[in-house]
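lol forgot to send this yesterday, sorry. struct tokens for the thing we talked abt
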């Protein structure tokens, strides 16, 4: 364990229940070191391990991570294949420990286009960990916020729901995140000031935090900084302060 992981952090006055992370900047992290992009994705995956540990330690109950977007298929074939392989290896290597630690793994996104063998591993991981309660880890993989809304509308129509029955609560029940509270805090690494199709419905009133730090370098200290900033924010939800 590195020094920063042994460090104790003063308790925060309020901790978000649900955190979303747009894990961005793997490619730039690699490029800055003269390495291929895929080395950045590997480093990013290793970072995920320590961020998961920190998430439990900080008392966060739900974490949604953006791992692969519906738009990321447009990347070069080798990179897409590399990302699929990394996902498979991650499940193979980390699943036993995640299960032991009480992590419930969920998937949000479409299964179509995901290689069959990886689909099977994902389904196995979801099934194995379904009763775990310590942390809900929502993996946004082949995820797009617009695709999610399209899928919801299709199912609403298939279920024969009438126009009068459609309200915000009903739509929320048809999203991939049905039953989970909306994210309180969405963190984006590597400085980009955009949402990139992540939780566009659920994030309507999320607090956003953007750091220039690339994802592989986003450590527990950086995480604590984000949570400190969140604790200082005044959430108003359209009302007047106080
Ligand atoms: C995020 O890092 C990981 C994925 C999108 C899969 P990027 O690969 O987008 O890294 P940059 O933004 O090019 O640096
Ligand atoms: C968002 O990052 C997707 C993930 C982190 C998985 P991108 O790097 O794909 O987003 P853009 O292209 O900068 O908007
Ligand atoms: Mg990026």
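and heres what i got for the seq, position by position
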């Amino acid at each position: 364990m590195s020094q920063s992981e042994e460090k104790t952090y003063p308790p925060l006055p309020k901790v978000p229940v649900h955190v979303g992370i747009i894990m961005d900047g793997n490619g730039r992290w690699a490029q800055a070191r003269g390495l291929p992009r895929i080395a950045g994705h590997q480093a990013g995956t290793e970072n995920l391990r320590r961020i998961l540990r920190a998430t439990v330690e900080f008392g966060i109950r739900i974490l949604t991570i953006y791992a692969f977007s519906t738009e990321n298929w447009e990347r070069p074939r080798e990179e897409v294949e590399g990302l699929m392989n990394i996902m498979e290896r991650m499940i193979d290597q980390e699943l036993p420990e995640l299960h032991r630690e009480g992590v419930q793994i969920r998937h949000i996104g479409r299964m179509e286009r995901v290689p069959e063998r990886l689909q099977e591993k994902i389904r196995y991981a979801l099934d194995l960990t379904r009763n775990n309660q310590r942390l809900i880890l929502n993996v946004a993989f082949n995820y797009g916020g617009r695709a999610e809304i399209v899928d919801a509308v299709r199912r609403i129509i298939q279920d024969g729901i009438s126009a009068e029955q459609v309200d915000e609560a009903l739509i929320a029940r048809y999203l991939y995140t049905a039953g989970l509270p909306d994210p309180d805090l969405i963190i984006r690494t590597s400085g980009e000031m955009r949402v990139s199709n992540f939780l566009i419905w659920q994030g309507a009133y999320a607090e956003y935090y953007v750091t220039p730090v690339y994802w592989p370098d986003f450590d527990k200290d950086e995480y604590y900084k984000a949570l400190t900033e969140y604790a200082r924010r005044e959430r108003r939800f359209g009302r007047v302060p106080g």
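The two ends are 43 Å apart (CA to CA). anyway ping me if u want another try
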